[in-house]
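SUBJECT: A protein chain and its fold
Encoding: whole-number codes for local backbone shapes
RECORD BEGINS BELOW THIS LINE
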Amino acid sequence: MRGNKRHWLWNLLIVISVIVCIVSFLAHYKNWIWKKTDRIQILSGIYFKELPFNTLNEVTMVPKIPSLDRKNGFSAWEKEKGIFKDSLNEEKLVYVYVDNLEDQKIKLTYNDSLLLFINLSDSLKTKELYLYLEEKIAAQQTQFNQ
């Protein structure tokens, strides 16, 4: 009786699938933020946003996100991530990178009217990011006024 032996290609496909699932989970697990000298980069799963400091207009802390219509993205437990449309202005896209819906969020206005909401799973790191962005906006405004 001949034994059923799985082909090596199927084993490779299974291993690659597991690796892709793990990488996908890690990418969506939290917001990854890189602070550069002239910009900030945000990666959250498949969503990537790069914001030069000279395009930032205003940063505030808000307790909740306004009513938005989802264009694409996902919500799971306390996480909300993706690209949304403003329910009052359909043309405006709003980027949402929220790791914890219960905590305060940073509302960032850039390019005069575009919005981005972000927070991190740790509220202290969110506050630290808020102070960092506030400092960068203030520095840009003093440079502009000179």
